[in-house]
Amino acid sequence: MDPVLAIVLICVALLLGILGTFFVMQFVTNGKVKSAEKSSKQIVRDAEIKAERITKNAEIDAKQTAFEMKQNAQNEIRQMKQEIQLAQNKLDAREEAIDARDNALVQKENALDRKSETLSQKIEANDRKSEELDKKIDAIISELEKVSGMSVKEAHDEIMARVESKMSTEIAAYIKNAEDEAKDTAEAKARDLLALACDKYAQDVTTERSVAVIALPTDELKGRIIGREGRNIRVLESTLGVDLVIDDTPEVITISCFNPIRREIARRTMEALVKDGRIQPGRIEEIAAKFKGEVENDCQKAGVDAANKLGLPRINRELLAVLGKLKYRTSYGQNVLQHSIEVGYLTGIMAAELGLDQNLARRAGLLHDIGKAIDFEQEGSHASLGAELARKYGEPDVVVNSIEGHHGDVPLKSVISHLVVAADTLSAARPGARSETLETYTKRITQLEEIAKGYDGVQQAYAMQAGREIRVMVIPERVSDAEAVRMAQQLREQIETTMTYPGQIKVSVIREYRANELAK
Fold it and tell me: Are 354 and 482 members of one domain?
C-alpha cells in the first residue's frame, strides 16, 4: 500500500475516534447535568417545605413567648401598683400625723408667746419695784451712815469681825461633835471591814525597774553585739525599741526602756542571742519576732488567769490581753497586776460584808488600774485612759466610774466605787507593799513635820509610822480644844494640797493641860 495513503487513513481514523469520543462524552455530560438539575430541584422543594415548617413553629413559639411576657409584665405592673398604693397610704398617714403635730406645735408656740408676754410684763414690773427698792435702800443707808457715823464697808467689816469672833469657837465645837457622831457609827464598822479584808489576803511584792541587766559569759560578746561599724547594735535598738548600754562593766550589758513590754521582749531576745552565739541582723529580727509573740501570749494568759482567780466570767479577750500587760508593770516597787488582783479580792470581801454584788465589785477592783498598761504609749492619766478602754469594751458604768474616779478625778457615783478606793489604799499602803528611795522618804518626813510646826501654838510635831501619821503637840495656854480641832482640819487640807504621798496620813493634834503641885 502506498505509504502516503496509509498515513492519510490513519489520520482519518484518529479524527473519527476523537469525534466519537467527544460525542460520547457530551452525551454522558448532558445526562449527568439533567440528573443533577432534577436532584437539586427536589432538594430545593424539600428545603422550602422544611423552611415553611420551621417558620410556622417559630411564629407559634414567638406568639407563646410574647403572651407569657405580656402576662408577666401585667403581673409585675399590678404588684408595683399595689406597692405604690401602700406607699401612698403610708405617706398620706404620715402627712396627716405631721399636720397634727404641726398644729400642736403651733398651739404650743402661741401659748409660749402668751407666757413670754406675761413674763416680760412681770419682769418689767419687778424691775420697776427693784429700782424703787434700791432708791429706798440707798436712802436708808444714807440715813444710817449719818446716824452711825460709819460707811457701809466699815459697818460690814465690823459685823463680820464680831460674827467671826463669836462663831469660830461654836463652829469648831459643832464640827468636832459632828465628826465624833460620825465616827461613833462608822469607824467601828469600817475598822472591822478593813481588818477582815486585810486578814483574808496577803500578797508578795516585786522590785520596780526601768532597766534589765543581761549577764555575758565573756566580754568578747560585747564586740559581737555591737557588730562591724555598729551594725548589730543599731538593728537591735531599732527592732526592739530599747536602748542598749554597753560600758566598761565586766560581763554585763544593760537594757534601758520605760516600756515594760519592750523591755521584756528585749531581755528574752538578748538572752537567747547570747546563748546561741549567732548575732547578725537576720537572726536578730527572727528571734525578736518569736519572743514578741511569746510575750503577747503570756499577757493574754496572765489576763485570763487573773480573771479566773477572781471568778470573773465574760470579760472581753482583748481587754484581758491589755490587763495581762500589767504583769510587766510595777508602781513604787509593787507589781501592778498582783496589786489589781489584790484590790479585786479586797473589794469583793468588803462588798460581801455590805451585801453588794461581789462579782461586780471584784471586776471593778481588778480593772481599776488597767490604764497603766497603756499610759506609756498614750497621753493622759491612767485613770482616764483606763475608763476610755473600759467604755470601748462595754464594761458596766459602775466599773467605768470606779476606774475613772479612784484617784478623785471625777465624783464617785456608787458604793462599789468607794470600796475600790478603800481597797486600792489598803493594797498600796500596807507595810511592805511598796518601796521608795531613802532620799524620798526622808524628804517626805521632813516636809510633813515642817508643815505642822508652821502653825501658831505648836510646841512639837512628830512624823510616825513611816510618815503615815503626824502627831502635833500644842501649847494648851495658847490653843483651846475647839482651835485644836480647827488646826487638825487645816493641817489635813494643807497636806493634801502640798504633798505627794502613797496611801493616807493620819493627823492628830494633842492638847494636854497638866496642873502640878508638890506636897512637902
Answer: no
The answer to whether position 311 is within a domain reads yes
Query: In which domain, by residue range, is 242 found?
Result: 211-429
- Evaluate whether residue 19 is within a structural domain: no
Residue 207 has a pLDDT of 37
Beta pairing partners, 255: 212, 244
The Cα–Cα gap between 301 and 295 comes to: 10
158 and 299 share one domain: no
Whether residue 373 is found in the same domain as residue 258: yes
* Cut 0.70: pTM above it: no
Q: Is the pLDDT of residue 203 over 50?
A: no
190 found inside a domain: no
Which helix (DSSP H) or strand (DSSP E) does residue 118 occupy? helix 3-148
- Report phi then psi at 252, rounded to 5: -150, 140
| Contact (CB, 8 A) for 332 and 435 | yes
Residues 77 and 114 in one domain: yes
pLDDT tens-digit series, residues 292-337: 888 889 888 988 888 888 888 788 888 888 888 888 887 766 788 8
Which H or E element spans position 334?
strand 334-335
Q: φ, ψ for residue 253 (rounded to 5)?
A: -125, 155
Q: Is the pLDDT of residue 339 over 80?
A: yes
The residue whose grid cell reads 493634801 is 496
DSSP class of 228: G
- Tell me the per-residue pLDDT of 455-505, one tens digit each, with 9 for 90 and over: 988 988 888 766 778 889 898 888 888 888 889 888 988 888 888 776 678
Final residue before a domain boundary, out of 409, 429, 449: 429
Number of domains in the chain: 3
Q: Which residue has the cell 543581761?
A: 214
The total of other beta-carbon atoms located within 10 Å of residue 321's CB is 18
Q: How far apart are CA 207 and CA 205, in angstroms?
A: 7
Residues comprising the chain, all counted: 520
- Same-domain check for residues 290 and 216: yes
Closest CA to 506 of 473, 471, 474: 471
473 and 384 belong to one structural domain = no
Q: Are residues 361 and 276 in the same domain?
A: yes
pLDDT in tens, 501-520: 766 788 889 887 777 777 76
Q: How far apart are the first and last CA of the chain?
A: 213
Cell numbers for 14: 484518529
Q: What pLDDT is attached to residue 206?
A: 36
Give the HSE-up count for residue 379: Cα atoms under 13 Å, Cβ half-sphere: 0
Here the contacts of 157-161 (C-beta below 8 Å, separation 24 or greater) are: none
Rounded percentage of the chain residues whose pLDDT exceeds 90: 0
Q: Report pLDDT for 103.
A: 86
- Does residue 333 share a domain with residue 260? yes
For 31-71, where are the E strands, in sequence order? Answer: none
Average pLDDT across the chain, whole number: 80
pLDDT at 401: 92
From 429, 454, 470, the end of a domain falls on 429
